[in-house]
Amino acid sequence: MKNGTDSFLSLGHWPSAGSFGFNTDILATNPINLSVVLGVLIFLGKGVLNDLLDNRKQRILSTIRNSEELRRGAIEQLERARTRLRKVEIEADEYRMNGYSEIEREKENLINATCDTLERLENYKNETLHFEQQRAINQVRQRVFQQALQGALGTLNSCLNSELHFRTIRANIGILGAMEEITD
């Protein structure tokens, strides 16, 4: 056998170029085509997909670690604010006679500012995680599509030799000629 396509063509299942036809049995052709495409996608895209997912996992874990560090910083700020609050409360007892209402306002402002900071940091963490997840999903989709397309083109190019290509062209020209005669 010279190559795989010559042996495949000589199996006797292919009609000659003069009697070219289409296989309209969808149940017989679609599962074969789908299994070939899925096999190629799984074979070619498995390693790349695993690497991409591992990289994205590391980036997401890094983002989570950064967010946790920000959270720890916010908790430390909260503890400092609580310490300051305790000091303010002690001073409030001492200066109750001179400015009780002003100290209460400062206390509320300090608590509100700390709560606002914590809320903003939590929102930022959630937005960052969501953004990174969406970006990871989009990158994986794009990579899988590129790999599948490259694999399919490689498979097509490796299967078509010049003799088979010219036979197919001649058969299609014959079909078009026959169709032209029928329409005339």
Automatic annotation (TrEMBL):
Coiled-coil zones: 64-98
TM helices/strands, residue ranges: 32-49
Subcellular compartments: Membrane; Plastid, Chloroplast thylakoid membrane
Main location: membrane
Record has Glycoprotein as a keyword: no
Transmembrane recorded as keyword: yes
A GO molecular function held by the record: proton-transporting ATP synthase activity, rotational mechanism
GO CC field: chloroplast thylakoid membrane; proton-transporting ATP synthase complex
Pfam families, per the entry: ATP-synt_B
Keywords: ATP synthesis, CF(0), Chloroplast, Coiled coil, Hydrogen ion transport, Ion transport, Membrane, Plastid, Thylakoid, Transmembrane, Transmembrane helix, Transport
Entry superkingdom: Eukaryota
Chain's role: F(1)F(0) ATP synthase produces ATP from ADP in the presence of a proton or sodium gradient. F-type ATPases consist of two structural domains, F(1) containing the extramembraneous catalytic core and F(0) containing the membrane proton channel, linked together by a central stalk and a peripheral stalk. During catalysis, ATP synthesis in the catalytic domain of F(1) is coupled via a rotary mechanism of the central stalk subunits to proton translocation. Component of the F(0) channel, it forms part of the peripheral stalk, linking F(1) to F(0).
Oligomeric form and interacting partners: F-type ATPases have 2 components, F(1) - the catalytic core - and F(0) - the membrane proton channel. F(1) has five subunits: alpha(3), beta(3), gamma(1), delta(1), epsilon(1). F(0) has four main subunits: a(1), b(1), b'(1) and c(10-14). The alpha and beta chains form an alternating ring which encloses part of the gamma chain. F(1) is attached to F(0) by a central stalk formed by the gamma and epsilon chains, while a peripheral stalk is formed by the delta, b and b' chains.
Family: Belongs to the ATPase B chain family.
Listed name of the protein: ATP synthase subunit b, chloroplastic
